[in-house]
Amino acid sequence: MIFKTPSLLSGFIIILILSSCAVSPPKKPNDICSIFLEKRSWYKAAIKSSKRWKIPLEVNMAFILQESSYIQGAKPERTKFLGFIPWKRKSSAYGYAQALDGTWERYKKEAKKTFAYRRNFDDSIDFIAWYNNLSHKKIGIPRDNARLLYLAYHEGQGGYKKGSYRNKPWLTDVATTVQNNANRYKSQFNSCKNKLRNPFYYLFKKA
Is the pTM of this model over 0.85? Predict the structure, then answer.
């Protein structure tokens, strides 16, 4: 007689582990101070990636807000077969940064992060900062120009150089939104960065 209970139990344990690893989006995604006060590990990751790749943290955070709204397992919508049957997804984009499979593999190799995971916030914001730094070095986009960096992020650096975004007014509008969000995040961060630097502030802040 073969007992299947252990395998069922193992499956249940795996589901519990995966559930426990799920990270909820911040309560106030449009307020960077609120985000970092709620999630101190995100603050540390944002600072670290900004220093490593020399891209302002408000730019990188604005990218994540636009790409996934801080949803850990975000994926593109599925296309529709015959107009109504859910079909394949539009791309392999996944996670906080909506990174494509090929670009993510390149990042892991070049950034020496073999075990980087797209559902991990630390890895995702580092990926965005890495890519923005590439856009700065390869095509000369200023490190703090969120609008142009986003166009290169969306179209790829080759597409940006060819001006593929010029025929996409909806994309230029989105890029402007990213710039506006980065500007707002910068202003907010300047108002709370001294508090955030103080580790004791987290111990005594109001819930």
Answer: no
Domains in the chain: boundaries:
25-204
Sign, Cα dihedral of 128, 131, 136, 139: negative
Q: Which residues 6+ apart lie within 8 Å of 38 measured at CB?
A: 26, 27, 28
- Mean pLDDT split into 10-residue runs, the chain, 207 residues: 44 42 91 96 98 98 98 67 43 89 96 96 98 98 98 97 96 98 98 88 60
Backbone angles phi, psi at 71, to 5 degrees: -90, 120
Phi/psi at 88 (5° precision):
-70, 155
Amino acid symbol at 93:
A
The structural architecture, per CATH, of the domain 25-204 is: Orthogonal Bundle (1.10)
Closest CA to 62 of 172, 186, 169: 186
Question: How many Cα atoms occupy the beta-carbon half-sphere of 17 within 13 Å?
Answer: 6
Name the maximum alpha-carbon separation found in the chain. Answer: 69
Name the CA dihedral angle for 46, 52, 54, 58, rounded to a multiple of 10 degrees: 0
Q: What CA–CA distance (Å, rounded) separates 66 from 131?
A: 16
d(CA 61, CA 64) in angstroms, rounded, equals: 5
User: What contacts 25, CB < 8 A, 6 or more positions away?
Assistant: 69, 70, 71, 72
